[in-house]
Every structure is written in C-alpha cells, then in structure tokens.
Write a structure and sequence with these properties.
Length: 243
C-alpha cells in the first residue's frame, strides 16, 4: 500500500492507493502559522506505507516534513519526470507541480480525449489549457472564498456572511447580492473564459472541474466533468510512471 498526499496553500488531502484505486481519503484545512496541525495529521503515516508520494506547492512545509519524518519512503513529485506533458512554449520552471500532475491525471483518466480545460477551485481558481495532451498555458484568478473574504474585510458596509448556494440571479439585499455574485456571477465568469478559449483555439475541450469549492458551484453542469480527487489520482498515475 502507498499513500498519496496533495498539499495546497490552505488544505491537505491524503489517500491510500493501490494501483489506481483511491480509498480512505482524508482532508484538513490549515494555515501557514500552524504547520503543527499538518505534522499531527501525518504523524502516524511515515512507518505505515511502502511509499509516500507528496505533491506540494508549499516549500517551507516540505522542508519541515523532510526533517520530521523518515526519508527512505518519502517521494516528492519530481517535475522533470513530467516535462513531456508541457508544451515547449511554456515556462516550465514557473509552472506549479500540482498543475502538471493534473495534466497527467487528465491524460491518463480520459485517454480518448486530447484537449482539456482543467478548472481547479481552491485558494486560487486556475484554468489550465491542455492541447494535444500537453499543458499549453493557463489562467490564475482569486479563489472563491479568498476574493469574498477580502471584499468583506475591505468594505465596511458589508458584514460577514456564510457563503452558500443560491439560484438567484440578483439579490434583494446585501446578503442576496453577495450570494448571487458568489454563485451565478463566478460561474458565468468561468463559462465565459471557457467559451473564449474554445473559440480562440478552435477546439472542442473536455472540461474537468476539481478542487475544494468545485462541488459548491459547478458540478451540476452537465457539460463539465466533476473529478473531486483529480490531483490524488494523478499522484497514483505518477507512481506507475516510476515503476
């Protein structure tokens, strides 16, 4: 048995996997001033698994994990092994490892398709364009909760609200207006980006959505593929590449 770990800027997922089957998926949210929460979450794993594969975008946490746990079974994803999945016009050195793993995951999971748009709704919202199975470029937008938390902090007339689903296109009060923007407005922005990219490159893209907030907004769209654990599955595929 092996363990896949996906470390984002504010959340961490882990899953046991055998071949390409994921099970016992666990998740925590954390902040960068409390890395001890992460260490506690992982403390019993270092001796349990043959290999622990880590896809991380937080270098300071990587260094802490390397110091804290056994090194002989830790396998941090190596970007250079995935360079063939990135188009030669892209600045490979500035491309996050999580985004390349998602490209690998999409290619392996949907092998009949060649063109993808991967939408990852996390701390940031990213749109990644894959043409002929290679990463071709992307877009980074403020994340759903990140942008609204910042708005509430800066606008003295807007009180903190619990973000939730709504089908209303417009709101009749401040809360309703915020929820309309959070749901319908954000979805329309992403829809427009997809249409723009499809028109520019004259391709029919398979649209995959993933990330912590994907289920709140977009997974009811019939023309999108909702893949909750795309990155973890990509880590399992990476394990097969290493064999």
């Amino acid at each position: 048995m092996n363990l896949a770990i996906d470390i984002g800027n504010t959340s961490l997922k882990k899953a046991i996997f055998s071949n390409l089957h994921l099970n016992k998926i666990n998740h925590i949210n954390y902040s960068k001033d409390n890395f001890n929460k992460v260490l506690t979450f992982l403390q019993n794993d270092s001796k349990r698994f043959e290999k622990i594969y880590i896809c991380s975008v937080v270098p300071e946490l990587d260094n802490l994990i390397k110091r804290k746990f056994l090194k002989n079974n830790l396998c941090f994803i190596k970007k250079n092994l995935l360079k063939s999945y990135v188009h030669n016009t892209v600045n490979f050195n500035q491309l996050g490892i999580d985004r390349i793993i998602n490209v690998l995951s999409a290619n392996k999971t949907y092998s009949k398709n060649k063109h993808f748009i991967i939408i990852d709704l996390g701390t940031a919202t990213t749109l990644d364009i894959i043409i002929n199975r290679k990463y071709f470029g992307g877009v980074i937008l403020p994340g759903l909760t990140t942008s609204y938390a910042n708005l509430i902090n800066l606008a003295s007339g807007i009180k903190n609200i619990r973000l939730q689903e709504t089908k209303d296109i417009i709101g009749k009060n401040t809360k309703g207006a915020l929820l309309s923007g959070f749901n319908t407005g954000y979805k329309l922005m992403i829809d427009s980006y997809i249409k723009k990219v499809s028109s520019k490159y004259k391709q029919r893209f398979k649209v995959i959505i993933t990330g912590g907030y994907a289920s709140n907004i977009l997974n009811k769209q019939n023309n999108y593929e909702y893949k909750e654990d795309l990155t973890l599955l990509g880590i399992a595929h990476y394990h097969n590449l290493k064999k």
